[in-house]
Amino acid sequence: MFETYLLPVEAAVSLFPLVAALIMVPVAIRGYRRRGRAGGWPVLVFYSFVFYLTAAFLQTVMPLPVDTDGHCATSRYAESPQLDPFAFRGTIATAAEGDRSPANLLTLTPTWTTILNAVLLLPLGVYLRYRLRQGLIATVVLAFLTSLFFEMTQFTGLWFVYECPYRQFNVDDLILNTAGAGAGWLLAGPLIRMLPANDPLAERDRYWSRVTLTRRALAFLADLTGWLVVWTLTTGLLAVATDWTTGREHAFAIGTALGALWFWLLPLATGSTPGKRAVLLRVARPNGRRAGPLRLTARTCLVYAPLALAWLALADRTSALTLPDDATRLLPYSAAALAALVWGLAVPSIALGRDHRAFYERWSATQNIPLRARHDHRAAPPPAPTADASASAVGPPPSGR
């Protein structure tokens, strides 16, 4: 009997890494903006919540019929919804055949079906109270809507993917699921006292000013991902509006112009790339004053030179750009070597160095300045003074891409 319930959990274990990878960047950005960091206990709680929701949803739709036509031709029980409240009591009584002892009831499939329906959304009540700070009424309403979504998914045959419903819409499931979530909310009261406090404001006060390697790497990843997404959409829309050949011919030029805007012109105008702005960072001089065009241009050239060479190599490989044969052969190796040199030297010094400075920060006399979240109206203190803060070319305090 329990194999049917374990199958969705096994599927959730296989699916969860993909789900986590898809939401990792936005979740980390949200963490920096709300709590000043992307890791810690709240992140573990959040991803456990995501795994739980994935497993709960799969529990309501699996196992899926293999032979759709045969199932729809022979199975009719799910065509009509079960709208009689508390019908599970009669089902259990019939299965018990007059023996209502606990030992007998625990051997019955209807008993375990009822228990598991009550337990299904119990963790949801705990999460809603602890993680999202919802009250009992809001928890009950959200649990009811969640259960209703599950039941409608079943009754519509996975939203009409199947030609017929393969699981019955049951009002008892709505009742048991919602009651279980309410019980979870009540159980969360004593449980919260044993767990770390969920206080985003206190975390932000503690961590917002830390410009860590992880924070910089996330900004870099967000920038690279955002640039690729916008480039893909732009070239795709151009191809749709004109034709495929036109989209291909202009793809390299569009990507180059977009890259210059994204990684160079926007920082010149605002001090931040979109990725840096997302994690509340901006590039400035060591004393906090705005960095000039020469400093920012020098920094941009050093940090993004490997990407520029890789972009040229890709353009040549796809025939979007024609280069001499020698350049064609050398570009991929040059891009890899430059990446190893620039990033290979910068990452260890930022992560392990005593002052956490990268060489291109010394040369360009720039640094990353942490910003307060827009909704945080408390004044941000100026950057800490350093012995070499007045240097014009070298010596900024800890910073990095």
Automatic annotation (TrEMBL):
Q: Which domain of life is it from?
A: Bacteria
Main location per UniProt? Answer: membrane
- Give the Pfam families listed for this entry: RDD (PF06271), VanZ (PF04892)
UniProt membrane topology term: Multi-pass membrane protein
Q: Which UniProt keywords apply?
A: Membrane, Transmembrane, Transmembrane helix
Does the record carry Transmembrane as a key word?
Answer: yes
Could you tell me what this protein is called? Answer: VanZ family protein
Annotated region (Disordered) at 376-401
Q: Where in the cell is it found?
A: Membrane
Task: List, alphabetically, the InterPro entries matched.
Answer: RDD, Teicoplanin_resist-assoc, VanZ-like
Domain RDD residue range list: 212-313
The segment(s) forming the VanZ-like domain are 49-188
Source species: Streptomyces alkaliterrae
What high-level taxonomic lineage is stated for the organism? Bacteria, Bacillati, Actinomycetota, Actinomycetes, Kitasatosporales
Look up the record and report any one GO term of the cellular component aspect: membrane
Residue ranges annotated as transmembrane are 6-29, 41-61, 111-128, 135-162, 174-196, 217-240, 252-275, 296-314, 334-353
